[in-house]
Amino acid sequence: MKIRSFLTTVASVALAAGSLVSNAKDIVHDAEHYVLLAQYKDKWAAQDKTLDQKLVELEKKHGKRPNIIHIMWDDTPVGEIGIPAIQKVRGWETPNMNQLAADGINFMRMYTEPSCTPSRAAVMTGRHAKRNGMYNVGFPYEYGGLAAEEVTIAEVLSEAGYATAFYGKSHLGDVESSYLNNQGFDEALWTPYNQVPSLYVPRAQIGALSAAVMFPEMFGEDPYDIDNGWRPDGYVWALEGKKGGPVREVGTPPNHDDYVALEDEFWKRASEFVRKNAKSDKPFFVALWPQLTSFMGFPDRVTAGGGLLQEALARMDVRVGKLIKELEALEIDDNTLVILMADNGPMTHNGPPGMVETLYTGGKGDYTEGGVRVPAIAYWPGVIEPGQIIGDIIHETDLFTTFATLGGATKHIPRDRIIDGVNQTALLLEGDTQSRRDYVHIYTGPVLAATVKGRYKKHWTGAKPGLSGPEFYDLYSDPREASGQLLPMFPAKSMFNIMKVRHLLMKEKYPDKGQNRDFPLKGIENARPETIEASKGRVLSGDAPFDPKDVIQNLPEWDNVDRGWGLSE
Amino acid sequence: MKIRSFLTTVASVALAAGSLVSNAKDIVHDAEHYVLLAQYKDKWAAQDKTLDQKLVELEKKHGKRPNIIHIMWDDTPVGEIGIPAIQKVRGWETPNMNQLAADGINFMRMYTEPSCTPSRAAVMTGRHAKRNGMYNVGFPYEYGGLAAEEVTIAEVLSEAGYATAFYGKSHLGDVESSYLNNQGFDEALWTPYNQVPSLYVPRAQIGALSAAVMFPEMFGEDPYDIDNGWRPDGYVWALEGKKGGPVREVGTPPNHDDYVALEDEFWKRASEFVRKNAKSDKPFFVALWPQLTSFMGFPDRVTAGGGLLQEALARMDVRVGKLIKELEALEIDDNTLVILMADNGPMTHNGPPGMVETLYTGGKGDYTEGGVRVPAIAYWPGVIEPGQIIGDIIHETDLFTTFATLGGATKHIPRDRIIDGVNQTALLLEGDTQSRRDYVHIYTGPVLAATVKGRYKKHWTGAKPGLSGPEFYDLYSDPREASGQLLPMFPAKSMFNIMKVRHLLMKEKYPDKGQNRDFPLKGIENARPETIEASKGRVLSGDAPFDPKDVIQNLPEWDNVDRGWGLSE
């Protein structure tokens, strides 16, 4: 097999430090974790003791484990939030979020998956999207989504007694298993897709420079347009449901007003949920993932720059400010960890104007730093030291494990699969240089495209077999990955190869799951006829010389393979 | 002529607001200034009255006009100094300078000329390098330099009673008129070239990956190497002199130690000069323009990143910290304006590793923002409000006029030429949005390559005649000038054309001077034989069928015309 053939070229490599997994009850991490563990086992164990003690004291003080609010939004390059000087040159500002960064941690190396669906699935499960099959970006209809077997942070925290809620853009698929009330949330209101459907409305005709071309009501009569079922016109704006209860559609496409109204509703419900649980014995966990904007933009402008995303974030900033004030008024701010972050880099490829590179090359979909490094802030007054700019690597999957640790819920993390997220409680509570991670494997789609180790980076795609090419980068000296170095970086060649082999070997024991595919939008209580039609497939079995179900199951693994990126396996 | 033919295409354009130049004794600015003046005449006049009053009060309090220290170094992109978060991702820090930015003004739109010699000439004269012929980057031998007729800020402030000194890299040429003690400085120690000669030493052989190839002592015998006078081996490391006195060479090339020792000497003399003048009746002006580093780099590393420039700036930061402490100890910090800035963008083209883009596209030599926007800090405790991040446009030439204003020396600014620099005292003392400039004409070499107006930018080079091409940029939304906009920016077409015509029409009345060329390194008291040889020319008149003097005078106006950039005139 391919992994083995790769192995023969690096014949002497063994799965280093594997014996450290001494206890079958330990969480299983990726190989690289054990390399660090072998070196820091004692230090980390001692540190964990101190941290556990601190968490116990906090629990004593507040009568419960900390509340967690996780706010994640779209497509923002690292540096655009939390650094007022950069906002100055872009003609906008987010004073509230900048203040939270100044009063807490401003992470400079928060890594994510390079696009929405993978990133959201990764933070939800603590696992790279490649492991759980969520490496495709979903569009109506996606015919796929988060599998029932995946264990989300909501499920883990629920088991430990948390009240849990989701409001916003999930983008985790349109199959029934992906519905968020089926994935551990007590209550949820979510959009299953991204913001692109906001262009699938008659009003999109107004923007003549960016004509939307999907729906026939946007055009004059076309006598050649004969397949009435080809377009996904049963898509939904949003769904809502409670744990164990039915799911209902919210708003009716293509009514654009219904879509725009959702954003208010997300924040309103989040506020209600926080108020409702503030004085309860149960701590709460809220995933508040704003949809930010319709792709149609706002009718007025609140920023000088006027970029679509900046306009949305400036508005979101006001909401964030209000939410923090609310936590203060409820006197729970010092028992609430707030994480604010983007889900991936800017949509520089075919995105709206104003979505641009800031410090790094590339954006959404790219394995260069611009695709996978995002602004991220941690705020927890009295617990997290203010004024920290943190240079450590942290990966979004680490939040899964860290939230579980803070919530006293690690025993509910499954032990039968690799959890990429490592526990970063030390980084949150003790600060700079305390990360338990110095590596990131960067997948784009199903492809392992690059690996980061500290300041160094190896591009796997584009590498030449035989003589090593200049695919080695020093991210301090060449942050834009503009000129790979060959000669000075030769010592890194084997080290990166060994890292990759370790990573792939772990997959032999814990294989990736494939994509989870099914007909979309099933089981919606108030489904419209066109939605019901879609949930059954357009062609019934027996009506065609193929099985429609088979078609769905065999949708391409990755719809961008023709982009010219080399495949690594 | 060409300007006229351009004019006929925009036939209705007149030199707007020219009548505002009512008084022959007024400083002559570029056309665009008068467009703003027409709109803000009353406001600015009232504001100037308040500011003058404030300066008079300060003079009363301290018994003299403010001291000015202007620190300018090489090749740093805007954002790399003064924004700790950006330094975090590059693996280095300048805590002292960052603190000065936090305690004063952090300029986000300080524009310069796009390379060393032009930038240094511009700040020295308050004029674009194209006007004074200094648009070439000098190398040994340059056979050119700042003309005697140019009036420097040192001359202007000297006239008003300032003690003046220059220490560091001048890069203003090697002809006698350019010697800094001939250009208004009471005392000066300067390197006439850039740092590249530091590679013209035998020790450069150590760096086998970047072999220096200019000097025969670096190679074995070459029987084909027959012209003993071809190489500029009479170049000097540094010169020193006092106003009205002789000039002497300091250090002997290719002794690399002599070159490295200069940096200490620059800072030592600056410190001595400050101490000497601290309690004097005369205010002082110091231009302290560090050479930072030899291109050979430092034998040890003080930063994690380790880039050549970052290593140098981290070291310089310590010196800056000491200098500030010294001002405090002398109790003159509250009467001393300190400006810190780079001279142009990073040397991304053929430069050393670590010289990279940060927020903007391009670097040294480029007319994109990356070439011409630099980090800049203004610090003046008690006078400049701390904590300011300023989004206004300011151009390095403005410092000339502003320093003169602060020094009560504007009457010594010549009235027979265009002074590009406008008075930015209001911006320094009253802060954000108080700039008197919303425009920059960007020259690279002798070419007017782009024009900035507020957030908008027009690239002149590369523009197509006839139908307008997509050369219009919105710097808020597209800071990297990645995708010019045609349709949404159409209204800007005529506006930019009018701006250009105004600018060119002013040149008819006040023409650019050509380059000032002569044999190099004349009149050095302790000149070595090879330097004396160079100062006479390699071939004497009469020994050849051409006049060597003629050759020097006709050196190409711009040695990069084959770079493929279009010429605008």
TrEMBL record, chains A, B:
GO terms for molecular function: arylsulfatase activity; metal ion binding; transferase activity. It holds the Pfam family Sulfatase. Residues 1-24 form the signal peptide. Keywords: Calcium, Hydrolase, Metal-binding, Signal, Transferase. Residues 533-552 are annotated as: Disordered. Residues 66-408 form the Sulfatase N-terminal domain. PANTHER family: ARYLSULFATASE, ARYLSULFATASE FAMILY MEMBER. Belongs to the sulfatase family. This is Sulfatase-like hydrolase/transferase. It comes from Pseudohalioglobus sediminis.
